Amino acid sequence: PRAAATMGEAPEPSSQAPLAVLSKVELRVSCKHLLDRDTLNKSDPCVLLLMQSQGQWVEVDRSEVIKSNLNPVFAKIFTVDYYFEEVQKLRFEVYDSHGHAGVGTHDDDFLGGMECTVGQIVAQKRVTKPLFLKYGKFAGKSTITVISEEISGNNGYVELAFRAKKLDDKDLFSKSDPFLEIYRIDDDRSEQLVYRTEVRLGWIPPRTNPRVPSPAEPPLAPQVVKNNLSPIWEPFKVSLNSLCSCEEKRKLRCVVWDYDSRGKHDFIGEFFTTFEEMQKAMGENKVQWECMNPKYKIKKRNYKNSGVVVLLDLKIHRVYSFLDYIMGGCQIHFTVAIDFTASNGDPRNSCSLHYINPYQPNEYLKALVAVGEICQDYDSDKKFSALGFGARIPPKYEVSHDFAINFNPDNDECEGIQGVVESYQSCLPKIQLYGPTNVAPIISKVARVAADEERTKEASQYFILLILTDGVVTDMADTREAIVRASYLPMSIIIVGVGNADFTDMQILDGDDGVLRSPRGEPVLRDIVQFVPFREFKNASPTALAKCVLAEVPKQVVEYYSYKAFPPRCPQPDTPDSSLSSPQ
Q1: What is the pLDDT of residue 511?
Q2: Topology classification of domain 24-151
Q3: Which of 121, 111, 3, 98 is nearest to 47 (CA)?
Q4: Which part of the chain is the VWFA domain (predicted)?
Q5: pTM of this structure
Q6: Comparing C-alpha atoms, which of 237, 208, 382 is closest to residue 317?
Q7: Which CATH number applies to 322-564: 3.50.50.60, 3.75.10.10, 3.40.50.1980, 3.40.50.410?
Q8: Which stretches of the chain score pLDDT less than 50?
Q9: In three state form, how does the secondary structure of 168-210 look?
Q10: What pLDDT is attached to residue 255?
């Protein structure tokens, strides 16, 4: 599958252009109330990540094994490629590892699994669901939480280089083996592990050259340091989303531990800081904090600290991406507009493009479902506007080019994609197919809503209009004018040509081969139209059409908000954890 995972190191920034569609997403996993399968100790959990590819589940990566812990927070960061235009199905499997032939073998105990999509995780940012055993049985009270953050080159990155000096010695016959953990403190006061340094591994500058190397320079020869009270940890990179949710004043808790191979690490000390304070270390400056042990501070009269932690260097890079906007709370509002002109044929006739075959959906339904199933993961209320044009509608049976197919003029939204399908099927017997094929009224209708959204000056809602039509539009001049106006608004337009008509003249609306202009010669600000004939995908999988028409949407979203200089909104507080019904 098109999935990648990074073992034990921070991801390198991508060299892609800022508007590249492809992004990478990091997934952090924790569990609670796992089943205890061990007799003398507690379970030793490990998580496997699988992705569905061609109908098969393929392992992408696996976490570390955490000894004797029923509420593990895994340090492993799973990294997957993200495609907006695909439904990417994931499965997380948790095992109690017995450390023989590898996790997931018949020797290990299965503690539960959970399935979801990448789109669901990135749209919600944090997903908590129960774990299931085989045959849909709940794994007791076990839950798994997956938190997503973007880490592509389009995202903000910070590179940090830490060292410590004169840490407390926690070992009896040797010196401490220290490692550093950084936690982000969220709005609900919970702590999210951001990064854990390498354990018992650092490098000591040669005695002939005590100068600390800059991370930009080639590193000095690394040496394994098992007993070191003044370690220099390897520089590492984390996304700004991960470190501080892009909020410079968000509090961070940094903890230094003495490593223990049995998992009972000794607490050395802690300190609190913010990314705002860390930025003082840029350039030649250094920032340091006293590493404090609260118990020692109370008990020991002359206690000063348990050592000092120094931030040697900090480098930062910020560019906003599609996922920055989605994870910042930007909703994708999906509207479908269906052609009900007479050229489609009488819906009661099996030759009609609107014929409802009980055994196979028609082309309108296939296109609607293929695109709608992608968009629904990015709309929190799962309500979609469904409009029709080119028909005579009750009660007066006058021609309308922008009517609600649920016949509710005050609320044209339907509940989910299935609600759109049901409204489409129920409206067919009530209308008279007529004409002409005018789409400018519907483009203008959606544009008016998008204009209201623009006036909020926030990246809160972006509109996708899917137009399904069986022929070349009649009002081409008005349509071109409407598209030019819409190119200044937060919206994209997808036009799918249904049937066997000659759609050559429709290519003018797709700006891939040139710049679309209004009848007055004004060019579009952005290329926001994608046109494809459905017949090109007639024998392809249902996902092929969605991949084609939606691939440009992330680029169009970023282009619009970059032009308006609207940054992503601050992520909203996590909503209550969702529940998961039994697997199908």
Answers
A1: 63
A2: Immunoglobulin-like (2.60.40)
A3: 111
A4: 333-532
A5: 0.58
A6: 237
A7: 3.40.50.410
A8: 1-22, 101, 152-154, 200-225, 572-584
A9: CCCCCCCCCCEEEEEEEECCCCCEEEEEECCCCEECCCCCCCC
A10: 95
